[in-house]
Amino acid sequence: PYTTLFRSTVTYHIIPHANNCDGIAYDYIVTVNPRPSPTIISGSFNVNVNETVTYTTQTGQSNYLWTISTGGLIISGGTTSDDFVTVKWNIATSQQVCINYDLVFGLLGCPALIDNCYAVTVNPCPDPKIVIMDPTNGIFCDGGLGVQIGVQDAEANIKYTLLDINNVVVRTYTPSVAGTFYFTPQITTSGTYHVDAENTTSNCIIHLQPYQTVTAAPLPGIPAITPAGPLCANPPNGIELGLSGWETGIDYEWNLNGGAWNPCIGNPILTWAVNPGQYCARAIDPVTGCTNNAYNCVRIDSLPIKYNLSPFGDLCGCQNISLSNAQVG
After folding, report:
1. Could you count the other beta carbons within 10 Å of the beta carbon of residue 253?
2. What's residue 246's pLDDT?
3. Cα 203–209–174 angle (5° rounding)?
């Protein structure tokens, strides 16, 4: 065979010979055209599964032949007139992309003898999982325990990273077994958070959805109890206790001496305090469920009991008089 890197012309002078006789000489002119050396000049050969990559080769050629292994899907290009092909790699294993084309000389096109193939390593990635929150819907009471954020049906040995809106790492966790988990400790700062999942062997990172928003709901204020104490009991009617600075839309409760909480009577009356003791009030936001347990309290003291004087009435001088049923204090 005759090969060349350049187009060249060769003349063959042929003289037939038989029976000791020379025949008529003939000249044959042969033009030998070079074959191309196709190469891929751009595009990554180390990719992650589900990644889309565009490969390019030399421009201005004809009859392009792109061959993609079964783990890749041609998204665009890749026809006989395209000097590029865009491939989505769907299977995490060894793959390849091949290229060939013709060098054209007049009506003659010369392809490379074999396709030029490139090995492509397709790395595994984590499965796309769902970011979840606890049943608080992302709202927690200021100063409370916070909100749980986690991943549903997480994979084992995948590194999950919780980040804030500025991509600052907040929590990381790598479960040893598959299953749903929550990052600990709980999130106590308002903001928007997202989770990245990383296969630390292949260094493939994917962003999980959805983003989750955490909100610290303010605690409702607790008005002062009126009148201010300490107070003296007023049997049998009791004392009307009210609230100074009652807020619309906030529920208020009271208890006596740390007992069960009771709903207030209504704005601005907290309750009628008949029995002596310590009355405390707290506030609850029915929308957020936040309760302010920084109680305001007032003390109502019992009236002194009746003392008995003995003897009483008309007495003689220098006679002792005493009190019975006297209270200490």
Report:
1. 18
2. 80
3. 45
**Distance from C-alpha of 151 to C-alpha of 193, rounded to nearest angstrom:** 12
Cα–Cα distance between 278 and 264 in angstroms, integer? 16
pTM over 0.90: no
Long-range CB contacts (within 8 A, 24+) of 141-145? 141/216, 141/217, 141/219, 141/288, 141/289, 141/290, 141/291, 142/216, 142/217, 142/218, 142/219, 142/290, 143/219, 144/188, 144/290, 145/186, 145/188
How far apart CA 296 and CA 72 sit, in angstroms, is: 70
The count of other CB atoms within 10 Å of the CB of residue 9 is: 8
* Residue with token string 């065979």: 1
What is the C-alpha separation between 179 and 78, in angstroms, rounded? 42
- Output the CA–CA distances (angstroms, integers) from residue 255 to 71, 134, 293, in the order listed: 70, 31, 12
Contacts of 315 (CB under 8 A, 6+ apart): 321
CB within 8 Å of 2: residues ≥ 6 apart: 10, 30, 32
Structural contact between residues 46 and 118, judged by C-beta atoms closer than 8 angstroms: no
**Cβ atoms within 10 Å of 288's Cβ, excluding its own:** 18
Q: What angle do CA 188, 158, 88 make, to 5 degrees?
A: 115
Q: What is the DSSP string of 190-259?
A: -EEEEEEEEETTTTEEEE-B--EEEEEEPPPP-PEEES-S-EE--TTT-EEEEEET--TT-EEEEEETT-
What pLDDT digit, counting tens, does each position of 193-221 carry?
999 999 998 889 999 999 999 988 888 88
